[in-house]
Amino acid sequence: MRNGSKGGFDKGPFQSNEGGNPFIVVILLSLVVLAIYFTFVGGDVKFTPELSYSEFVKLVKEKRVIKVVIENGMVIKGQALSKDNAVFSFKVNIPYADFELMKLLIDSGVDVYGKDTKGIEDFISTILFVAVLVGALLFFIWLIGRQGGGGVDNSRIFNFTKSKARVYKDPPKKVTFNDVAGIDEVKEEVMEIVDFLKDPKKYIKMGARIPKGILLVGPPGTGKTLLAKAIAGEAGVPFLSMS
């Protein structure tokens, strides 16, 4: 659609009005997802000292641990008293299933809490993975477009289903081999193609392996397109042209 003010074309949905890089939006969205991840999942991640399991058990036996939060049965976060009675936070990774630990904590008067963070971690991790994957895919499509011609029409970047091929089913003038001159040897070579297009079942019954396509190679102006039209005309099948 024409733009009345500048005489150009309307910009696609992935193209900014300033002509900037549309993939900045993808980067910003990825940063938002990261922020959400660290807010909900990594919110408890602080610069807390990590104690060894033996040090933790020693603190519990000395009744210096105030409270603990056991996350997913694998990590313990809590508060304890130092030797000068100052409260400090700590984190401990549980190396194995210690069935005596819970009894020791309760007998030592420690407030014990449980926390399950796997659900939201898995959810946010999935969103983050999908966002990064989509962002990488869009970036490579954009990069390939730039390498292919210095730019890419971002408004058509996802129009994979819209083919530019034109089908000539009933052309006004049917092109045949009589219209192709000067390449008699080539016409003889492609006669088998015409025969196959006319009666493919015959070749299938013979066990022939049907090719995906045939490549006509030659410099411009040597009649490749005209020969393709003639093959379609001789076989009575539609001719497709795409540029």
Model description:
There is one protein chain. This protein is an alpha+beta fold and 243 residues long. Among the domains are: 53-116, 2-Layer Sandwich (Signal recognition particle alu RNA binding heterodimer, srp9/1); 166-241, 3-Layer(aba) Sandwich (Rossmann fold). It is 40% helix and 13% strand. It is built from eight helices and six strands; from the N terminus they run ααβββαβαβααααβ. The strands form two sheets. It has a four-stranded mixed sheet, with helices on one face. A two-stranded antiparallel ribbon has the order 5-6. Strand 1 (65-71) and strand 2 form a beta hairpin. Helix 6 runs parallel beside helix 8 (224-235). The longest helix is centred in the middle third of the chain and has 32 residues, at 118-149. It is rod-shaped.
Mean pLDDT: 73
CATH architecture of one domain: 3-Layer(aba) Sandwich
CATH hierarchy, class of one domain: Alpha Beta
Q: Spatial order of the strands in the main sheet? A: 3-2-1-4
Secondary-structure element pattern, one letter each = HHEEEHEHEHHHHE
Give helix % range. 25-40%
CATH fold-level label of one domain:
Rossmann fold
Q: Describe the biggest sheet?
A: 4 strands, mixed
**Which blocks of ≥5 consecutive residues have pLDDT under 50?**
1-20
**Termini separation (Å)?**
22 Å
Radius of gyration (CA) equals 35 Å
In terms of structural class, how would the helical and strand content be classed?
alpha+beta
Strand segment tally? 6
Shape: rod-shaped
- The number of helical runs is 8
CATH homologous superfamily caption of one domain? P-loop containing nucleotide triphosphate hydrolases
